Every structure is written in structure tokens, then in C-alpha cells.
Amino acid sequence: MSVKVRFAPSPTGMLHVGNARTALMVWLFARNKGGKFLLRIDDTDQERSKAEYEDAIEESLIWLGLDWDKKANQKDRTALYDAKIEELKSAGRLYACYETPEELGLKRKSQLSRGKPPIYDRGALELSEDEIAKFKAEGRKPHWRFKLEHAPITWNDHIRGEVTFNGGDLSDPVVIRETGLPLYHLCSVIDDIDFGITHVVRGEDHVSNTATHVQMFEALGASAPEFAHNALISDKDGGKLSKRLGSLSILDLRDEEGLEAMAIVSLMARLGTSDPIEVFDNIQPLIDSFDFSKFSRGTPKFDPDEILRLNAKLLHEMDFTDADEKLKALGLNDIDEEFWNAVRPNLERLRDIKDWWNVAKGPVEVTIEDPEFINQAAELLPAAPWSENTWSEWTSAVKENTGRKGKELFMPLRQALTGMDHGPELNQLLLLIGPEKTKERLAHKKAA
User: Fold this and answer.
1) What Rg do the C-alpha atoms of the chain give, in angstroms?
2) How would you list the strands of the sheet with 70-73, edge to edge?
3) Which CATH number fits domain 80-176: 2.60.120.620, 1.20.1290.10, 3.40.50.1820, 3.90.800.10?
4) Which pLDDT tens digit goes with each residue over 93-113?
């Protein structure tokens, strides 16, 4: 079977971590199977759908490396929906309902108070022609429900295993609003049939929807696709993603947090699976290793510290040829391979390199607490030209002349040269600062 899948976001907001993970799963599955990936924009709700959100979703996917083979917008497909809706009406599978939201709310409360599940009672099917005429005269517009068959609904889920519902335990879903606007359920099924979708991958919050969709496929004369429902991710404490990085959009993670796309992809691809979480500098290994059987039904926890760790590791292992274009995009055109190799072990985010550039090349504010020691060290500074051995030659001479060693030797020198008590290895950083700036920093800083 040729695999064809879709990712179907609604352009009513930005793409966030949870939906991005689903998009990644769908894309990895398609590429693993040599199949096709459809980007379907679910924009039938024209009031809430915005072009800027659609653009942002596309930009997010492209940045993550998730390309698509075809794109479709539901707003352009209303003629098809209308035709299929008429088929279902003629077959008696859609029926008009005239209850107001308030009346439906009272029904639900009554059922719950009697210990019954809040399932729609199909009261609309009992209306007489006179009652319908009365509602119409009042100006009521009907909403439409799909009539479920009270029979078992079963499918073998790629993640959850065998799933079974009974149609009689479910409410007939509303599929058309009073405004005549068809809702997600029916449009999605019609599109999945029309585009030949073979597998539907989505969050576990859609499991009960899937049960109703299975009967919609059958009512439209089609076999249901295969399904995989992934567990929704939580924050590291098991709550909703509402703190720190988890509540940010993908573009915010890029622009505000300065994260690398492959750090996000590496974490999202392995989150909730039996595979170890590790960073990858390209997506191919994740394609090759993808398998639904590796995903657990347990709730995976998204830890912001984990993604920062992966981001740092990615940078620490990144070759200058891969970093150069990214650096230029940050406006850092003067950074060369020597500088990159010296400071990359100290980067958590790429933009951190600006700080180290300023430490090496710009004026720094330092406080010298032991000027006598620094004066002695300055007098022992080796003459130019310097080499990779200069730092060890210099500190050996300072140690011999002052008797200092360890932290008492190295920390005052680092603070005098950089104004910091941590950073890149000084044998490399000293070469980047250079003889002239080193002399200036040792000679012209005043004691606290």
C-alpha cells in the first residue's frame, strides 16, 4: 500500500510544540515509508482563520525541515462538501435539530442529575411537521447531526492497540452549524476520502471523534484509513504546557529563545518513545528509525532543560561550515573558524557567541582585586608572536615567580583578561584577544 498522510492545522493560532510533534510524527512516517505528505489547512471557520497564522504555520514547518508534497485549503473545497452533505441527507444519515444551546444544556443537566450519560436523546427525530413549522416561524435555524448506528466500532490503533466503542454510547455529533457552516468532523472525513489518505495520525484527544468518523467513512461508501493516536505531552511536572518553553510557538522558540531547529526536532521525534533522546544534526536518522511501535501510551513530559541541553550539544559539535551561514544571519560576519572552535564549547544558544566576541574583541569592564599580582604577571607576558603554547609558557613563568598555583593563579588572570570567572579555555582565548589587547587589559584597569 502506498502511504499518504496529512497534517491538518487550523490557522487560528501559531504552531506550538504539541502540534509540531504531531506534524513531525506524520512527516517522519511518510518519509520512512516513501509516501506522500499533505498539508491541509482546515480553514472553514473564516471568522477565526487568519492568513498570517497560515503563513506562520508554513514558516514553522519549513524551518523545522518538514516539507510537503501537496497543499490544500478547506475553504476552497466547499462545493465538494455541499455535494456530500446532500448525499448524507438523502440517505437519512444527517438530520436537522432545532434545540437552542440553552435547551441542550438543560437536557444535559437533567441526564446527569439522573445518573445518565449526557448523550443526545434524538429528540429532533420525534418532531412533528407542525412543531418544525413552529420553530421555523420563530426564526430558528437548524443545526445538523450525523446519525450514528448503534453498533460496535472497532479499529486497531498503531499506538493504542485495539480500540472499541459502541455507537449507542456516543452522542450523534453536530456536523453543521446553524449558520450552515460544516464542521471539522465531516469536512475532514470527506477530504480524507477525496485525497486517498491511508493513515490518520493525531492526538489522543481525538479518539472518541475517530469512533464517529469511522461510521462517516462507511456512510460515504469508503473504508476508514488506519489510525494512530499519540499521547499528548505535558510539562515536566505532568501539567499542561503553560510554563517556559512549552507555551511558546515554534517561531518564538526560534526567534525569542534562539533555539536550533534540529534540537527541537531531535527531542520531539524521540519524546514518548523507547529510543534514547539524543541530538542529531540532520533528520535522516530519525526518518530511518521511525516506528509507531516505539511510542508509549503514557504521557510524555516536555522538560525545557532537556531541549536546552540538546541545543548546547548540537552547537558544541557543529562544524564551522555549518555555523558560518547562521552566524552571518546574526550579523556576525567577522567570526572565523579559529574563533568558532575556541568558543563553541561554551555556547548554549548560538547568539551567546556575541558575548564571547565582545570579550575577545571589544572593551571589557573588569575589576582587579590584586593589582600587584597582575603587574607581576604583565611583566612576564611572552613577546609576540604568540602560539598555542603561549598561555602555558606564561602561566608557568608566573607560577615560578609568584609561587601561586591552581585557582589562585588562574582565576585572577581570567578575571583581568575577560571580566568573568568562567568561559572558553584561556590557551585559545588568549590568542583571540591578542598581545595588544592583553597588555591594555593588564595595564590600564584600576583596582576596586
Assistant:
1) 31
2) 4-7, 36-41, 70-73
3) 3.90.800.10
4) 999 999 999 999 999 999 999
